[in-house]
Structures are given as structure tokens and as C-alpha cells.
């Protein structure tokens, strides 16, 4: 039994260590390539080979941990920042499926949904067009270096998919008003549930600059927010990498801020309105 415990601890330590190493290595490599940096072919292949091997070992180690302790054991082994990065990528990619199927996440019958994707669409589609042109250009420039071309092509294609996924996440994850709460979101990046009883005041306020301040959460879309919520009690906001902090002011954006403002005011003074789902 003691030997099994020691072996289990070693597997968990290996999985935890690899989780801290693999993701930063891949992120650094992707950023360098996306920024136009060049690496010798043998170095690039070597780094990718090592990363692939580490990912394979990580997968086996996590499978062993999961078999012995289930999801709770995996959560204990994998650092929260790594889990949140991977979870964000999965939500973004999953949003593409919802987008194609014309479905929305977290919107039930009787809920009111308020989109917030319209004002960033032109910018993101512009980035997608630039990335497609860059992909074609790099394919021509690197046609004599197949290994580098393959890596850059994967990075470029994934960048296009990721940007489309970001827009899809904003479309399929709207703000949601229920009978007792308002769920405000920023695509796949942020998700905050605010009980209606804690909303002390709500006002239309279009802002294009947002300075970091204690107790304030800004959720801009296209660099702007259009509504400000003042809370009577703080709610806990969770950051991209898991950092938690209490907030008493939330600034968010909506495609139709007047409609959301009216619905919130009515919900705070009486039963929540029941409207048909927007197309």
C-alpha cells in the first residue's frame, strides 16, 4: 500500500510539473511565430517534438490520476491557470458548433437574451481577412521549407479559427435576464451571475475609456461599455486565470442597451417580462 501511495504521488507530481511547463512552452512558440520570428528548422522541429512528447506523457499521467481519483484528483493536479486556459479554448471552439447550429448557451425558455457581439464583428472579420491573406503569403514564402511551412500553416489556420470562435462565443453567449438574476458575459472570457436583489441602480452610460479601479469590473466590447450597474452588495468576479475579487460596480455593453435597461428596471420593480426570443 505504501508503494502504491508513493507511486501515485510521483505520477501526480509528474503531471503537475508537465502542466506548468507544456503550456508556457507552446504559448511562447506560438507567439514567436505569430510575431514573425524565425527559428532554425532543426530547433523548431526539436522543440515541437519535445512538446509533443511531453503532452503525450502528460496525457498518460492524467489518465492514471483520473482512473485513481476521478475529476477531483485531476483538478488537484492540474494548476488552475492551466485548467482555465484550456477551458477557455474549449469554450471558444465549442461556440463555433453552437453558432453553426444557431443555438445559444445558457438561455432557457422564458429567459431574456441580450446580444453584445455586433460592435466587434467588423473588427474581428477584418482580422480574419488579414490572417487569411497572411496565411497565403507565408505559404508562398515558405514553400521551400516544408517543415517550417507546416508549423506556420497550423498556427495561421488556428488563429483564424480562434478569431471566428471569439466572435461565435460572443454571439452564442449573450447576457441573460431571468426572474431572479442577471448573467452578464463577455464572450467566453467572463461570466458573472448577479442576483437582481443586489442591483441597487442601473443607468445607461456609454464609455470608451476604462481605468482599472478597486471594486469595478469592466466588460467592454469593441472598446466600449453602454450600461453601468451599481450593486448594494459585492459579487465575486473570477478573472481569466482564476483570480477572484469582489466588485460593486459592473460596466457592460449590449447591442440594444435601452432594451436591457428597460427590462432590468421592470424586473427590479415587478415580475420579469416574458418576451419572445430574438432571432
DSSP strand count: 8
Provide the succession of SSEs.
HHHEHHEEEEEEEH
Strand percent estimate: 15-25%
Radius of gyration: 22 Å
Question: Helix proportion of residues, in percent?
Answer: 55-70%
User: Helical element count?
Assistant: 6
Question: Unreliable runs, pLDDT <50, ≥5 residues?
Answer: 1-9, 272-279
> Per the principal axes of the C-alpha atoms, what is the gross shape?
globular
Q: How does the helix and strand content classify structurally?
A: alpha+beta
Instruction: For the record, give the distance between the C-alpha atoms at the N and C termini, rounded to a whole number.
Output: 60 Å
Main pleated sheet: 4 strands, antiparallel
> Which strand order do you get reading across the main beta sheet?
1-2-3-4
Q: What average pLDDT do the residues reach? A: 79
